[in-house]
């Protein structure tokens, strides 16, 4: 049957041997052409047939070659695979007919490429009979190579299928002895099932050989991680025994260390003691299925140098390149590779023939010379009988029998059989011996003796030589032993240059590292040892890197005095006190160990102690206690005693406390100070109720038991489990829970961004107090609890997170326990109320920064002044005041995207011309995220914020209306921020509108600052000087359209804005006496007018000091020269002149003030303010006068804990000195000075208020909120 994909020719076709090549007239037995290729046959020497064909078109996996005899012949077929388009087979019978078929291998199968029938003798003339076959005693075709031929031999490829083997009649009986060693791979990659196929293969290879003591000997070594000799060459003398040993071979398993295995063959299997015969030809057959995990080249080369023939058989995943490095030459005979283990059976017969051929040619039979057969010229110089004597650890003596004819010289070469650099020496031709020196002890060497001829080297001798090991030290003896030292001596070793001494405690068991010391003399002193301990001491001889076997001795150091009389007291379930009698000698420590059947532990006590507490111990357990004295020089012997611990105790003093709802708290006294792992608690209603059970960690002494109904009686039981597995006796009590009512109608209301008002309806019964617990509903914050008196039914929770939900629980605590809690969820307000009726919500930043009358005095760098109109206060922020608050304190995180920033401010001459933030909010790293910037240099206003993606966005306004803000008057500004635009209002008039993206939420953390310079860095840096009356953020963007700007006198509408209230609550219905006549008003443009007064006709001729009015005028006025010295007023002893440290009290009363003179400040030159008409100036002055007349007396209430900080003022021209006097006494029915006239106009319209004392002997008038900063004057006193 042809192989798959092949078809026999049809009957109409001519036989293959009768077909002719088209057009050439060439006989069909010479050439054969087919559709896809061409086949060429040629007979080579040794009856070998060489086949060549044209390569096929397209991709292929190779070629399958099949040569089979004609039908009816008993010979087996030959099949092989190859990558190249050629192949060679041997052993063909010249007169028989054969069929050769070439198949192309593809991924889908095989395709017939070429076919031919032929007879060998018809192809070429017959060869000599002596070169007919490639093996002895057999017939039949088989692949062979290795002889010289017109064409180079063709070897099988790694994927080649082996040919069918020779017929069973083949037998190999070499004329000389043969030693065959099989080296079989037994690694895990083989597998049990495949290992059986390997054994069948070995048996088939061994079968043709004649086994016997004088014939063929067979040995076998199996290797994986380490090689193992299964049997030696001399183990079996009959073929049946060898085959039986192969069948019983056990699979080893492991790694693939081929190099180690070849070294094992060299060192163990080829020893004379293992049956190796010097005159026998030696062959090693390696069978492996993988690549070696170590370097096998050196061992393979050493074997081949000894004349050993190595055959390498690879299976499946074997590395063919490695096989070719290991095998002997020619490689096409010694290297074979099959695709899988089942194909090994077809290779066995071929391998038997090749081994037989190889060892036949390598026979070591002696060659004799006769007259009819002259000796080879090379053998005349070959020495014989290489003998090794006088073997030491570093040298050997070689001798040999010289050849009949002496060579010129002998070259002796030796190298370690495991690999290494070869060394050599040359001796003269007459010499027959030499010595090799400087060898390594215990090492196998391959030694070669080669005759040196004129034309090269002759046939030499080779032998394996193993040096003797380095002799170890002898006669080890203990010269002296003390508690800390051992002195050891021994006899010197021949060839040793030094000695290695190792000392290790005999009880170390691998836990301690031994000590090593090298000495040059045969003695050593080991110190630093422990007394009373056994030591193992080992000594080795050294010579360079070589070391001998170790010789050892055990020695024990002397002991020290132990403690006496061991006793026990205070024995509990987990500890005990151990006592002993001390010793007379100084003791460094006492080591105490205690052991039971479960294990042992140890501890130490000071050298002056006579007792110690040991633990933790297991309850009800017997212990063996051992005590040892640790002296400075070592340890004493051991004192031993026994004790038994007590049973574990139970918990005690159980008590029950009622909790809210259906829970109770169970408390107890701990069963023991330590050692309790867990408490098991069980409570069961009496009757048929279901039991409940919980476990509590052993370090706790309280537990909450849920689910106790008030109408049932319960039995509560507790017991303790200890760490050692012991369990205490249970302890029980009975308990009936009472009935407790909780509060009802729990309600939550938000009063501010950071507070909630909680209210409830009290329950019936006497409540001791309420327990109120609150926590953020998101679970992101800690839980807090407060206690509320039992008579209360509401409470306010402060300091909450703005715009956050809170879960509040309230329970009633009775004398008999606590009720179950009731709960509710409330939400803090996002924006607090700004107006009393709650119609306007937002954030008052003035209050947030403490810019209120009751708090400003504690703020550094801030002064307060009363306002001429209403009760508003003006706050001056001096340079570098840098007011800063944490954002979490202001709660701006709840600010909605639509809001309005409102501020009423005045910029001063001292205000820097660089950009500063009126107010701004920054992140934790001081990066601005929200605020309003003022630039006095460009006279512009900028609003900025972060959008929802945290991207900075800003809008800038620099219109003429905006520039008015920088001219020194008070102005009210609205920055209305919408979702898509920002509108600016100045003095309640819309100025401009700019597009802008929606604002993001301000950060929860960070800082809010006032007046910070744009170039400043850090949280505490430079800030600007300015005045504020208002700073708010309203939580809508429409407030600017509704605000009436009633704070501005020029914008005040009498119908929609209420009249300004007096800044002082007290008043007088009776006017004071008229003041002195002041000078007339100057004309505009005149220089240096004196202080003028406005006079209004009426009863009592009221007079208004014009210089006073200029101090609260919203517009700058022209200031004249200082007036003449006033008349000396009446002295009032109980009302001294205002001095430093004094302050005005409430209306009608004075606080104590220091006495002394005060001086008028110098007045500065007139400065240009906003360009306004003179008519406007008189109109505003008239409004101020009307307000003063209607309220009878305009009173300034400047109540301050400290005087305002002086600000930078420019000095005017020097003026005449005048003496300051107290105000005159009031009229007949008017208020008197002692009645508390405190304002600048107190005591009558024409009266003059005293200035505050300055540190330099001058005084500075308080600046009015609406008075330009340059309106103040300073005069030098007398």
TrEMBL record:
Pro residues bias: start-end ranges: 1071-1082
Domain of life: Eukaryota
Name of protein: Collagen alpha-1(XX) chain
Keyword Transmembrane helix attributed: no
Broad class of where this protein is predominantly found: secreted
GO cellular component: collagen trimer
Pfam families reported in the protein's UniProt record: fn3, VWA
Classification of source organism: Eukaryota, Metazoa, Chordata, Craniata, Vertebrata
SUPFAM superfamilies to which the protein is assigned, alphabetical: Concanavalin A-like lectins/glucanases, Fibronectin type III, vWA-like
Family: Belongs to the fibril-associated collagens with interrupted helices (FACIT) family.
Xref: PROSITE patterns: FN3, VWFA
Region (Disordered): 1-21, 146-167, 1066-1100, 1118-1147, 1211-1278
Annotated keywords: Collagen, Extracellular matrix, Glycoprotein, Hydroxylation, Repeat, Secreted, Signal
Sequence ranges assigned to domain VWFA in this UniProt record: 179-354
Residue ranges of domain Fibronectin type-III in the record: 35-127, 382-473, 474-561, 562-649, 650-739, 742-833
PANTHER family (alphabetical): COLLAGEN ALPHA, COLLAGEN ALPHA-1(XX) CHAIN
């Amino acid at each position: 049957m042809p192989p798959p994909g092949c078809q026999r020719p049809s009957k109409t076709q001519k036989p293959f041997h009768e077909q002719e090549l088209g057009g050439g007239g060439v006989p069909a037995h010479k050439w054969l052409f087919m559709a896809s290729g061409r086949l060429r046959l040629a007979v080579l020497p040794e009856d070998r047939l060489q086949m060549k064909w044209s390569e096929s078109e397209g991709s292929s996996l190779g070629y399958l070659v099949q040569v089979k005899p004609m039908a009816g012949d008993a010979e087996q077929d030959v099949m092989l695979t190859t990558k190249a388009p050629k192949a060679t087979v041997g052993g063909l019978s010249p007169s028989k007919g054969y069929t050769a078929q070439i198949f192309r291998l593809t991924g889908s199968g095989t395709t017939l490429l070429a076919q031919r029938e032929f007879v060998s003798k018809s192809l070429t003339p017959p060869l000599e009979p002596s070169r007919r076959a490639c093996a002895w005693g057999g017939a039949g075709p088989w692949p062979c190579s290795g002889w010289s031929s017109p064409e180079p031999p063709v070897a099988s490829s790694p994927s080649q299928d082996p040919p069918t083997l020779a017929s069973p009649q083949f037998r190999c009986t070499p004329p000389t002895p043969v030693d065959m060693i099989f080296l079989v791979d037994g690694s895990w990659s083989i597998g049990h099932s495949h290992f059986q196929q390997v054994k069948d293969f070995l048996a088939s290879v061994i079968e043709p050989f004649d086994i016997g003591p004088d014939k063929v000997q067979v040995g076998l070594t199996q290797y994986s991680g380490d090689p193992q000799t299964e049997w030696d060459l001399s183990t079996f003398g009959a073929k049946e025994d060898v085959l039986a040993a192969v069948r019983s071979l056990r699979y080893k398993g492991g790694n693939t260390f081929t190099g180690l295995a070849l070294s094992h063959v060299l060192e163990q299997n080829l020893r004379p003691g293992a049956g190796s015969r010097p005159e026998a030809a030696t062959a090693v057959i390696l069978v492996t299925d993988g690549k070696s995990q170590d370097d096998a080249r050196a061992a393979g080369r050493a074997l081949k140098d000894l004349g050993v023939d190595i055959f390498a058989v690879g299976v499946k995943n074997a590395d063919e390149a490695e096989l070719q490095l290991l095998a002997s030459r020619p490689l096409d005979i010694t290297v074979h590779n099959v695709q899988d283990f089942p194909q090994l059976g077809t290779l066995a017969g071929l391998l038997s023939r090749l081994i037989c051929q190889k060892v036949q040619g390598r026979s070591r039979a002696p060659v004799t010379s006769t007259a009819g057969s002259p000796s080879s010229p090379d053998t005349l110089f070959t020495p014989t009988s290489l003998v090794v004597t006088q073997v030491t650890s570093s040298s050997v003596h070689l001798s040999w029998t010289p050849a009949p004819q002496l060579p010129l010289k002998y070259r002796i070469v030796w190298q370690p059989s495991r690999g290494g650099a070869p060394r050599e020496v040359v001796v003269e031709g007459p010499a027959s011996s030499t010595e090799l020196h400087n060898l390594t002890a215990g090492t196998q060497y391959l030694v070669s003796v080669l005759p040196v001829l004129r034309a090269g080297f002759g046939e030499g001798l080779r032998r394996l030589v193993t040096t003797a090991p380095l002799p170890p030290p002898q006669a080890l003896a203990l010269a002296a032993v003390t508690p800390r030292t051992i002195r050891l001596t021994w006899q010197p070793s021949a060839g040793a240059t030094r000695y290695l001494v190792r000392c290790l405690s005999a009880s170390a068991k691998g836990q301690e590292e031994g000590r090593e010391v090298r000495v040059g003399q045969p003695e050593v002193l080991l110190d630093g040892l422990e007394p009373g301990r056994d030591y193992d001491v080992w000594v080795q001889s050294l010579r360079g890197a070589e070391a001998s076997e170790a010789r050892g001795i055990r020695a024990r150091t002397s002991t020290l005095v132990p403690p006496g009389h061991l006793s026990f007291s205070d024995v509990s379930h987990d500890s005990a006190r151990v006592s002993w009698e001390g010793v007379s000698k100084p003791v460094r420590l006492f080591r105490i160990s205690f052991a039971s059947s479960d294990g042992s532990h140890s501890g130490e006590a000071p050298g002056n102690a006579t007792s110690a507490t040991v633990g933790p111990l297991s309850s009800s357990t017997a212990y063996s206690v051992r005590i040892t004295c640790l002296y400075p020089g070592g340890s004493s012997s051991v004192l031993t005693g026994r004790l038994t611990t007590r049973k574990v105790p139970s918990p005690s003093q159980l008590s029950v406390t009622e909790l809210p709802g259906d829970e109770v708290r169970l408390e107890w006294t701990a069963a023991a100070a330590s050692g309790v792992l867990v408490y098991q608690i069980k409570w069961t209603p009496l009757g048929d109720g279901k039991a409940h059970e919980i476990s509590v960690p052993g370090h706790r002494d309280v537990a909450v038991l849920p689910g106790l109904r008030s109408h049932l009686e319960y039995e509560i039981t507790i017991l303790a489990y200890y760490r050692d597995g012991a369990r205490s006796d249970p302890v029980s009590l009975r308990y009936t829970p009472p009935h407790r009512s909780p509060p009802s109608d729990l309600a939550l209301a938000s009063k501010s961004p950071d507070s909630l008002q909680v209210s409830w309806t009290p329950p019936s019964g006497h409540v001791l107090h309420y327990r109120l617990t609150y926590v953020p509903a998101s679970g992101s914050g800690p839980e807090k609890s407060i206690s509320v008196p039992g008579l209360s039914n509401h409470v306010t929770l402060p300091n909450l997170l703005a715009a956050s939900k809170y879960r509040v629980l309230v329970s009633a605590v009775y004398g008999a326990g606590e009720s179950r809690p009731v709960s509710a969820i409330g939400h803090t307000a996002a924006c607090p109320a700004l107006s009393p009726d709650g119609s306007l919500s937002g954030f008052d930043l003035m209050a947030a920064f403490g810019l209120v009358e009751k708090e400003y005095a504690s703020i550094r760098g801030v002064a307060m002044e009363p306002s001429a109109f209403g009760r508003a206060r003006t706050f001056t922020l001096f340079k570098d005041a840098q007011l800063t608050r944490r954002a979490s304190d202001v709660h701006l995180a709840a600010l909605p995207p639509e809001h309005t920033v409102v501020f009423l401010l005045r910029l001063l001459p001292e205000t820097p011309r660089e950009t500063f933030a009126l107010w701004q909010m920054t992140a934790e790293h001081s990066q601005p995220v929200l605020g309003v910037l003022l630039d006095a240099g460009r006279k512009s206003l900028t609003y900025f914020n972060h959008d929802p993606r945290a991207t900075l966005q800003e809008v800038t306004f620099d219109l003429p209306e905006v520039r008015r803000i920088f001219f020194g008057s008070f102005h009210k500004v609205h920055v209305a921020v919408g979702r898509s635009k920002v509108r600016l209002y100045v003095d309640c008039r819309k100025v401009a509108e700019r597009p802008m993206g929606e604002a993001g939420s301000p950060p929860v953390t960070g800082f809010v600052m006032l007046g910070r310079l744009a170039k400043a860095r850090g949280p505490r840096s430079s800030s600007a000087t300015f005045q504020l009356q208002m700073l708010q953020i309203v939580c809508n963007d429409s407030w600017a359209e509704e605000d009436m700007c009633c704070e501005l006198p020029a914008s005040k509408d009498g119908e929609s804005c209420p009249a300004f209230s007096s800044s002082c609550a007290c008043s007088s219905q009776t006017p004071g006496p008229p003041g002195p006549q002041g000078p007339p008003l100057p004309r505009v443009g005149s220089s240096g007018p004196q202080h003028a007064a406005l006079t209004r006709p009426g009863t009592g001729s009221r007079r208004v000091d014009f210089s006073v009015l200029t101090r609260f005028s919203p517009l700058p006025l022209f200031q004249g020269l200082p007036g003449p010295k006033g008349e000396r007023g009446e002295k009032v002893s109980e009302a001294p002149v205002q001095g430093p440290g004094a302050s005005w009290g409430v209306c009608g009363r004075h606080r104590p003030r220091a006495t002394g003179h005060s001086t008028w400040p110098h007045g500065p030159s007139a400065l240009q303010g906003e360009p306004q008409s003179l008519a406007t100036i008189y109109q505003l002055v008239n409004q101020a006068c009307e307000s003063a007349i209607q309220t009878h007396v305009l009173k300034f209430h400047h109540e301050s804990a400290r005087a305002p900080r002086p600000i930078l003022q420019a000095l005017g021209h020097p003026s005449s000195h005048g003496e300051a006097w107290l105000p005159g006494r009031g009229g007949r029915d008017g208020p008197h000075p002692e009645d508390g006239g405190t304002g600048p106009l107190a005591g009558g319209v024409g009266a003059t208020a005293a200035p505050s004392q300055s540190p330099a002997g001058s005084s500075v008038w308080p600046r009015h909120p609406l008075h330009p900063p340059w309106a103040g004057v300073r005069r030098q006193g007398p």
